[in-house]
């Protein structure tokens, strides 16, 4: 093999692998890493039982009954869902690099979730949101627990960094690590600090291994 070809081949292979990974990361928004108990994947094709290894995309919803689910997104983020939870991927975009076009917009209709953000939430904080029936949860940190209470109030506890909690009152309330914020069912009232503690879903694993 000539010297020029020897130098060219590794770079070519690396570029091809990177391009393939970026394309796969964009197409496969998230992957189900763990399922315990009953959980359903809901989208335009209907409902089906959710199992480990399933790829999730924008428009997909995960509904748990007595089950718990952990999802890993292509930017490195993790989401853990508690039983009796309905979670939707409203708009997720990540093409393998943080270039300003990335976003992670999610919906939490009921239940509770723990999230640890990836590149989307850390590089472009304004592009990461969790929308609930009574509030919009933003990110200025890396981890937190979001719970929907029986009266549809939104309860957020920060586990690292600072989260934001906003509703139709026009007020945005910061929720630092170790503190909790509540956006009540009356959306004309601004979010406020609370001593109420959410029930915590299982923490996302640091690393998953395939069988």
Q: If you had to describe this structure to a student in words, what would you say it looks like?
A:
With 211 residues, this protein is mainly beta. 14% of the residues lie in helices and 45% in strands. The protein has two helices and 16 strands. It has helices spanning 3-27, 119-123; strands at residues 30-36, 39-43, 46-49, 55-56, 61-64, 68-73, 78-81, 86-93, 103-110, 112-116, 128-131, 136-148, 154-166, 172-176, 180-183, 192-194. The protein has a 16-stranded mixed sheet that branches. The N and C termini lie far apart (39 Å). Residues 1-27 and 200-211 have low confidence and may be disordered.
Topology readout:
Blueprint: H1 3-27, E1 30-36, E2 39-43, E3 46-49, E4 55-56, E5 61-64, E6 68-73, E7 78-81, E8 86-93, E9 103-110, E10 112-116, H2 119-123, E11 128-131, E12 136-148, E13 154-166, E14 172-176, E15 180-183, E16 192-194
Parallel strand pairs: 9-11
Antiparallel strand pairs: 1-4, 1-6, 2-3, 2-5, 5-8, 6-7, 7-10, 8-9, 10-12, 11-12, 12-13, 13-14, 13-15, 15-16
Question: What value does the Rg take, in angstroms?
Answer: 19 Å
Distance between the termini: 39 Å
What percent of residues are in strands? over 45%
Please state the structural category: mainly beta
Count all strands and give the number. Answer: 16
Largest sheet: 16 strands, mixed
What's the total helix number?
2
Mean pLDDT: 82
Shape: globular
Helix content: 10-25%
List keywords for this structure.
211 residues; mainly beta; 16-stranded mixed sheet; 14% helix
């Amino acid at each position: 093999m000539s010297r020029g070809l020897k130098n060219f081949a590794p770079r070519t292979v690396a570029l091809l692998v990177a391009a393939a990974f970026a394309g796969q990361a964009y197409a496969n928004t998230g992957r189900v890493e763990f399922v315990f108990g009953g959980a359903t994947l809901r989208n335009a094709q209907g409902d089906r039982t959710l199992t480990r290894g399933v790829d999730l995309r924008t428009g997909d919803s995960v509904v748990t009954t007595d089950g718990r689910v952990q999802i890993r997104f292509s930017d490195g983020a993790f989401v853990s869902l508690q039983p009796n939870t309905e979670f939707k991927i409203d708009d997720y975009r990540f093409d393998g690099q943080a270039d300003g076009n990335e976003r992670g917009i999610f919906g939490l209709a009921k239940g509770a979730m723990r999230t640890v953000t990836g590149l989307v939430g850390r590089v472009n904080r304004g592009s990461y949101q969790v929308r609930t029936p009574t509030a919009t949860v933003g990110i200025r940190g890396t981890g937190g627990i979001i719970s929907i209470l029986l009266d549809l109030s939104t309860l957020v506890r920060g586990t690292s960094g600072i989260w934001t909690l906003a509703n139709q009152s026009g007020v945005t309330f910061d929720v630092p690590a170790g503190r909790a914020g509540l956006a009540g069912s009356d959306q004309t009232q601004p979010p406020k600090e609370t001593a109420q503690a959410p029930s915590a879903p299982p923490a996302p694993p640091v690393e998953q291994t395939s069988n």
